[in-house]
Amino acid sequence: MAKTKYPNVYLDNKGQYYYLVELGHDLITGRRIQKKGRRDAQHNKFASAHEAYKEAVRIKNEYQERNGFANYSLTYDDFLDDFYIPSYKSDVENSTFKSRQSTFKHLKKWFGAKKLRDIRATDCEKFRVFLLGKSGYSQGFASLIYCMFRNTLDYAVRMDFLIKNPSRRTKTINKGKSTVAFWTKSEFEKVLSVIYTKDYYQHMCFVILYLYFTCGMRVSEGLALTYDDIDFEHHRLKIHKTLEMKNKNDYELKPYTKTINGIRTISLDNDTIRILKNWKKDQEKHGVHNFIMSYDDTPMSRTTIPLIVKRFAKLAGVKPIQAKGLRHSSVSYLINEFNADVLTISRRLGHSSPEITLKYYAHLWPRNDETIADKMEGNINFKSATKNQLNFTGNQNIRSVK
């Protein structure tokens, strides 16, 4: 058997062309359905590979119209609601699923009424161009929407609703360059200086900002912290869970972090231990004994963190940053104040590898090439030639002016 330039078409040892096509899977047994043939609809042997290919396409289309789809007229909207979204919801965290609801709305608005099988590469390209232009979306958000769209069609192919994904004939939308604003040490000090810690609520804000800045936790990791996670004797903090919250009375502590490597134990300095002990005493006066980032022993909503950041940034006269900017601030602090190496930071952040750390934070490391440049001076020794030893008379043979 030898392959030809046409998909699903082969040449046997006797020089006879034939096709072998995959028609999907049996909906009951799950077995692959294949069809092999050496003759066309008029029972004539194939004279060329192209003839075999045309017959293979005809056979495949005919099968799909009869059996290949649960609903040949299925719209993209119904496909999302009945198939893709339920599957996607079962595969991701609730927080991730909630964050993708707006993405699904955009997809339905553009393709909802269109039959799934009628979506062409040109339709996908028009959508891609719209996202990059007239939509007004940031490139990062446009990238997210189009990536999700491509994934829905990949799923349609896997489930035998489509033969192939037409969007794969178009270019992806890259995320573009995104920079996350962060606080320097001096900016952070200004923020801490305007917080009145004798006020119970502000004392909590002080502790929240201090822990995120010095420990570099993800927002949901910090919100899930309880006093059981702190080893006051050995100055260690265990980060091993995340908070998923609907409201203050409906929440769940997930016994894992974003990645398996996110489960980690980090060391705490004496200042942080002292701050935590003082906050613990203040909380106990108000009947709080469990959650660290809490004033009433129920978890703090993640939407509150950016409000705290914004409020005290304005009061301190420093630039406002996103909540995740505190994680970037922590990395910058460790690098610039302690010259921390990438492996140490990677472990402290809970990354799967130093490569991930470098991918997102490489720009925070200083160039460190000034000393190299200084050492280069006078290191290469040579004497200039005293006469021309090159026999060259081309157009570029211009002598230096003496």
* Main beta sheet: 4 strands, antiparallel
Overall 3D shape: extended
Low-confidence stretches: none
Strand order of the largest sheet: 1-2-3-4
Number of strands: 9
Mean pLDDT: 86
Structural class: alpha+beta
Number of domains: 3
Share of residues in strands: 5-15%
CATH topology of the largest domain: hpI Integrase, Chain A
Domain Tyr recombinase: 178-374
Keywords: DNA integration, DNA recombination, DNA-binding
Protein name: Site-specific integrase
Pfam family, one: Phage_int_SAM_3
Give a structural overview.
It is a single chain. The chain is α+β, with helices and mostly antiparallel strands. 45% of the residues lie in helices and 10% in strands. It contains 15 helices and 9 strands. It has helices spanning 49-68, 76-91, 94-99, 101-111, 121-132, 139-158, 185-193, 200-215, 219-223, 270-285, 304-316, 325-338, 342-349, 354-361, 370-376; strands at residues 2-3, 9-11, 17-25, 32-37, 230-231, 236-239, 242-247, 250-254, 264-267. A 4-stranded antiparallel β-sheet has the order 1-2-3-4, with helices on one face. It has a 3-stranded antiparallel β-sheet with strand order 5-6-9, with no helix packed on it. Strands 7-8 form a two-stranded antiparallel ribbon. A hairpin with a 2-residue loop joins strand 7 and strand 8 (250-254). The longest helix is centred in the N-terminal third of the chain and has 20 residues, at 49-68. The model has no long low-confidence stretch (mean pLDDT 86).
